[in-house]
């Protein structure tokens, strides 16, 4: 007798839990995009003067024949800047937490924002920089110098840089940089007012002239950060195991860190140092989509944009007809979050 035809093996179906997780993450990503559109709409409609939705549509279409429509047209660059800066800070925070394997990593806590601010203040006070391009390059160089300094200090002594060492080194660097800013500005009454207002961190007075020069730096930072997602997942396994998988550890860290520095420096140059967005957004998103960076990074960018937009709206409504700078609002919200993270009994590994 001849054997019957052998049936071809049927590929195993994708396990339901993994498929369900991917579907849930996709839903969170879509929900984040919708929430970002809603936050942008609120930013256009509410402020010192509430605007009807019909006037919002008129202002977006370019018709400024009414006072409310003209107000909307003025708010458009402010809304765009808040979304870009929030996305940059949220994404850079997630990348920094992945590079350092430190759940407390944040551009503000690690002293990167303070380094960028100090560089800009020195540039203004000693070298008379005025153009947006000069602000951008100076802030990025200052952010890079601060990041390198913090990592070097955290690596001193026995063993590699630990999360606690990096947090302490970043806090000390941030305090020192802030003190140096005061020392530089104190004898310069001609620039003191403008520097202090910028140092609080805000998106008021945004214009396309200030946003457009920052776009190349932001786009480069977004690209470098997002393409580092896979290497960040491998680095989370440990340096030795990542190297065994073929990852060039130093190169992977340098590429990811460069992306984070570009994002922090550009956002700080245009908006001033804004804290806690890079800490709050990744932690919230890690609860929603998990620790896989190909999902965590884009969702953190969306969450950062939403957070900064809502903080800007809250600052405008809380002190109407005046307004609170967004840096004050994020500090008010982020400080309790930082204390909660520090006081947790066990911080999950990244």
Automatic annotation (TrEMBL):
Segments forming a coiled coil: none
MF terms (GO), sorted A to Z: transmembrane transporter activity
Membrane topology per record: Multi-pass membrane protein
Keyword Transmembrane helix among UniProt keywords: yes
Family per record: Belongs to the binding-protein-dependent transport system permease family. FecCD subfamily.
UniProt name for this protein: Iron complex transport system permease protein
Superkingdom, natural source: Bacteria
Pfam families found in the cross-reference section: FecCD (PF01032)
CC per GO annotation: plasma membrane
Transmembrane region(s): 27-52, 72-96, 108-129, 135-154, 166-186, 206-227, 254-275, 295-314, 326-343
Signal peptide: none
GO biological-process terms attached to the record: siderophore-iron import into cell
Subcellular location: Cell membrane
Keyword field contains Lyase: no
Keywords: Cell membrane, Membrane, Transmembrane, Transmembrane helix, Transport
InterPro entries, per database record: ABC_BtuC-like, ABC_transptr_permease_BtuC
């Amino acid at each position: 007798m001849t054997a019957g035809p052998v049936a071809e093996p049927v590929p195993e179906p994708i396990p339901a839990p993994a498929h369900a997780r991917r579907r849930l993450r996709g839903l969170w990503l879509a929900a984040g995009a919708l929430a970002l559109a809603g936050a942008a709409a609120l930013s256009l409609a509410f402020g010192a003067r509430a605007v009807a939705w019909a006037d919002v549509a008129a202002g977006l279409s370019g018709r400024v024949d009414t006072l409310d429509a003209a107000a909307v047209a003025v708010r458009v660059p402010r809304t765009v800047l808040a979304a870009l800066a929030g996305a940059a800070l949220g994404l850079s925070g997630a990348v920094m937490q992945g590079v350092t394997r430190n759940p407390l990593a944040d551009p503000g806590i690690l002293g990167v924002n303070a380094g960028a601010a100090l560089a800009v203040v020195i540039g203004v006070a000693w070298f008379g920089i005025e153009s947006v391009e000069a602000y951008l390059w100076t802030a990025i160089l200052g952010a890079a110098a601060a990041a390198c300094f913090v990592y070097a200090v955290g690596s001193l002594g026995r063993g590699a840089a630990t999360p606690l060492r990096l947090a302490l080194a970043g806090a000390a660097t941030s305090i020192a940089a802030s003190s140096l800013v005061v020392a530089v500005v104190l004898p310069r009454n001609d620039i003191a007012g403008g520097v202090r207002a910028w140092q609080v961190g805000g998106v008021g007075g945004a214009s396309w002239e200030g946003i457009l020069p920052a776009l190349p730096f932001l786009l480069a930072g977004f690209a470098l950060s997002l393409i580092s997602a896979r290497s960040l997942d491998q680095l989370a396994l440990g340096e030795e195991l990542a190297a065994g998988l073929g990852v060039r550890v130093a190169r992977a860290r340098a590429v990811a860190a460069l992306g984070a520095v570009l994002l922090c420096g550009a956002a700080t140059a245009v908006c001033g140092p804004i804290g806690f967005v890079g800490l709050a957004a990744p932690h919230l998103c890690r609860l929603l989509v998990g620790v896989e960076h190909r999902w965590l990074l884009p969702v953190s960018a969306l969450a950062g944009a939403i957070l900064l937009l809502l903080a800007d709206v809250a600052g405008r409504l809380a002190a109407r007809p005046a307004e609170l700078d967004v840096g004050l609002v994020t500090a008010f919200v982020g400080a309790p979050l930082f204390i909660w993270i520090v006081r947790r009994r066990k911080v999950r590994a990244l």
